[in-house]
Write a structure and sequence with these properties.
14 helices; alpha/beta; 7-stranded mixed beta sheet; FAD/NAD(P)-binding domain; binds flavin-adenine dinucleotide
Length: 455
């Protein structure tokens, strides 16, 4: 999730360098099982272990980190396949951690501009219109729509953002749509709840980690015992103890913290016996997954000079023409940490459609959009490309979750424990939803609920 321009208006609302840890089982008779070793599951496991509770963290994949994953093999430089922005840097524990482990080769840094002055290039066709009235028009439209969304929420109207959009005839309409919807929320206006949007806590500028956010998270939790390649198939919570059937056998425990994505919980991959209550299921289905994908590309360094980009971590926006009803375009972050790597991102229905066509189609689309801005010199400078496919990723089935219009109140339901046995964590249950730091805090919250119940 890239919150790069969103202003702090919500205060008034009160509101793969991942380490491969060898298979280890912390205890054969744990009191608690944590399902999933992403940001939430790892924070929960750490909290419980620190409090002397025997805990087993089980993970279907062969690595920790979940949707926070840095790969170094594809491009030879750190590539955040999932989370990249260290959001809410002021209060983000990973920023602080990054500063602590400076001596171990990590560098966290703030973008080279002040809050609200992130570096942008904005294109209208082949024209760079950055700093002109034309660019102002884009951000004015963006802010007008954003204000309308907050005002709808303040008035208690949990309506879709598409009900409050203005100036649909503006030439920048789809670019603002891309920036506010697909790029930030992984959904289109019609699927964004104004209240859920506005309930996001106040935040500060995002920072970056030169070695990758996923690498930083994996480093933080490298000491934690996790049982890999262990897929949970069913959770029988009918009796005093909970019986968890996994691909590696059964485990019987008193308490279970579930951190898998709403995509996985909605897909029935985990069979709950008895079924989860109807209101819990409704909250899982209505806080549904959006799709947001990167096409990552590396270029020869001369490319950036030639198109007038002289700074690192520069956003790219351009006049998007197509819509159906999702903006048929992308937004970019260029020359990431000075590594010549760029992310060009699609989101919402268009990202779903493009992902279905396959990674070649995702890369072709990106290349063709870049050619329409910068001409055929792209062919000369482009070195390598890779497309993510989070919509179909079997461990997540989507990128991150957001409440559908009319259902923002279900954020309360989704985090409520059941019978002092099942506890729910993960980004969708977090106040600071769709983020690594939110998932992290939700894991600590769920672990504390378990600790309370054990007193
Ligand atoms: C493309 C993309 C860009 C993003 N950008 C940012 C960003 O810039 N900044 C930011 O803060 N956040 C960003 N996010 C969101 C962030 O990555 C997530 O909110 C966060 O990592 C989720 O952590 P989690 O622990 O809730 O879930 P996950 O990371 O999904 O962890 C859940 C774990 O459960 C495992 N699992 C699934 N099913 C089973 C099963 N049956 N049995 C056992 N284990 C199972 C999964 O393998 C996974 O490891 C982005 C996400 C994506 C996809």
């Amino acid at each position: 999730m890239n919150i790069n321009r969103r202003k702090f208006l919500a205060g008034s609302l009160a509101s793969i360098s991942a380490s491969l840890i060898p298979l280890k089982v912390q205890s054969n008779n744990p009191e608690v099982v944590v399902i999933g070793a992403g940001a939430a599951g790892l924070a929960a496991t750490d909290t419980l272990l620190k409090n002397g509770i025997s805990t087993m963290c089980i993970e279907a994949n062969n690595r920790i980190g979940g949707r926070a994953l840095t790969d170094n093999s594809i491009f030879g430089v750190p590539y955040d396949v999932g989370a990249h922005w260290i959001q809410n840097s002021k209060d983000n524990p990973f920023r602080e951690y990054g500063e602590q482990v400076k001596d171990e080769g990590f560098e966290v840094y703030k973008p080279p501009t002040k809050w609200g002055e992130d570096r942008y290039v904005v294109y209208d066709g082949t024209q760079n219109v950055t700093g002109t009235k034309s660019e102002d028009d884009l951000w004015k439209l963006y802010e007008e729509i954003e204000n309308n969304m907050y005002n709808a929420a303040l008035a208690g109207k949990d309506i879709p953002a598409s009900d409050v959009v203005v100036r649909k005839d503006s030439e920048w309409f789809e670019t603002a749509h891309q920036a506010l919807g697909a790029y930030e929320g992984a959904k289109d206006y019609k699927d964004i709840s104004c209240v859920d949007w506005a309930n996001y806590p106040p935040y500060s500028i995002s920072w970056y980690c030169k070695q990758g956010y996923g690498a930083l998270l994996s480093h933080r939790w490298k000491h934690l015992p996790v049982q890999f390649n262990t897929t949970v198939e069913s959770v029988d919570w009918n009796n005093k103890n909970i019986k968890i059937a996994t691909s590696n056998g059964d485990i019987v425990v008193k308490k279970c913290i579930i951190t898998v994505s709403n995509g996985i919980l909605s897909s029935d991959q985990i069979n709950f016996l008895p079924n989860l209550p109807a209101e819990k299921m409704e909250s899982i289905h209505r806080i549904s997954m959006g799709v947001y994908n990167h096409v990552a590309m590396t270029f020869h360094p001369d490319f950036f000079k030639e198109i007038g980009i002289r700074t690192i971590d520069t956003y790219l926006y351009y006049k998007i023409k197509g819509s159906n009803p999702s903006p048929r375009g992308m937004a970019g972050l260029m020359n990431i940490s000075g590594s010549n790597l760029c992310y060009f991102d699609t989101g919402g229905d268009f990202a779903i459609e493009l992902e279905k066509e396959g990674s070649e189609a995702q890369i072709d689309f990106t290349t063709s959009e870049l050619k329409s801005l910068f001409g055929s010199k792209i062919d000369r400078y482009l070195k390598k490309s890779h497309a993510t496919q989070w919509g179909n990723n079997k461990y997540t089935l989507g990128s991150y979750a957001a409440a559908e219009p009319g259902y923002a109140h279900l954020r309360e339901t989704i985090r409520v424990p059941l019978n002092e046995k099942l506890y729910f964590a993960g980004e969708a249950t977090a106040h600071e939803y769709a983020s690594v730091s939110g998932a992290h805090r939700s894991g600590i919250r769920a672990a504390n609920e378990v600790l309370q119940s054990l007193i």
